[in-house]
Amino acid sequence: MNHQLVWFRNDLRILDNPALFHASNSAKPVIAIYIATPEQWLSHDDAPAKIDFWRRNLAVLKESLAELNISLHFFEVDGYHHIPNLIVSICQQWQISELHFNQEYPINEQHRDQAVSTACHQISIPCLDHHDQLLLAPKSVRTKAGEPFKVFTPFAKQAKLQLPHSFDLLPPPVKQQNMQVTQLADEKELHQLSWPNIDQSIQILWPAGEEVATDNLIQFCQSNAIHNYKTSRDIPFIRGTSFISPYLASGVISIKQCWLATKQYCESSDGVVIWQNELLWREFYKHVLIDNPHISKHKPWKGHTKAIPWRNDETELNAWQQGRTGYPIIDAAMKQLLTCGWMHNRLRMITAMFLSKHLLIDWRLGERWFMQHLIDGDLAANNGGWQWCASTGVDAVPYFRLFNPITQSQRFDPQGKFIRHFLPELNSLTNKEIHFPKDHRPASYPPAIIDLAYGRERALTAFKNLASPH
Questions:
Q1: Backbone phi, then psi, for 96, in 5-degree steps?
Q2: pTM for this structure?
Q3: Catalytic residue from among 41, 54, 206, 281
């Protein structure tokens, strides 16, 4: 008997999963696989918290598939270059007639999938890749001149024109007849794969499972949270955001499910529109990545910004990484990243701009640190956000705009509630002092590592001295 093979990657769900749906539409029974690649995770700076999140979601996915009589099998190789031979071996031993997987867009993943397709073609097994991670297909959103968009606002306007009024989510597969396949020699159990050890406190913050993700999404859209999103999204000490990003980054929920929820579960409002725009920012950065593969290689989107004289100061970089800069909102944000595996979006911008502008340290070092710690780390979104802050990317903030961490703290954490939570050593300070303690700075809290005015002028000079882009 021939089988359909589904290769799970960043799509750890059953509902609205194109590869699983199309494979199960065949009359042939479906088998599923997942391939761990620990060396690739390391080279891609995938956060241990994110890798552990995959493990926990794979355990839930395995149980959900088992209820449909679809078995999920686990394998491990060091890197992507071993995958083509492994899949060919799996296909031959299990008599696979077709391989299905959902598209991924970073350049290494593109090369991996092309190599797999070539290897399968040599043994006459079709590889069917499916559109999944985007609302609109790659290279489908274009200017009137047929060019990729370089600015978000016109991109979003055009995308909204092209989006259908509603999406038909793909249903889960129908339960198939019980089927047994031979266990392969190199197959492993889920717990035998090379998973990192993660503090349970982070796991508690981010429970696994498609049902959890869906419930959180619906609750967000049915509550006042989405309608208050316009103002509450910037306040780090309240639950003003959706907290869906880890589930979306790992494909535990689809982007189409998120967009459709804003139509199904709430009336339109300013908050709804702004949250939809956040989904479109994610969409925008993925389209930018697809059209500009060089940014997958640690290169700036604006080529002329390669000439910026970034500083190499290990002491200041370490102070920023560990939350010891002497600027409370920066330090509290970095402590949140270290202890929660996540950081509030407003704080991501403040901390990124502080590193790349006030400290004039290469944005790529910050981008890497975020990826190494974020449970919702996504190459396109993280790269896009960092290049926006560093003024090296598409639709980036003007180089002369620098967020002042003190005024940002006063505006978005006026009583210092967020700062006090992550920096308890500052609890005795008044609401005024806590944003930048001077006279009553605790001995355990470090002095400021830089004068903001000096850092600002240094950054402006560095950018002004760049050659004009061609």
A1: -80, 135
A2: 0.96
A3: 281
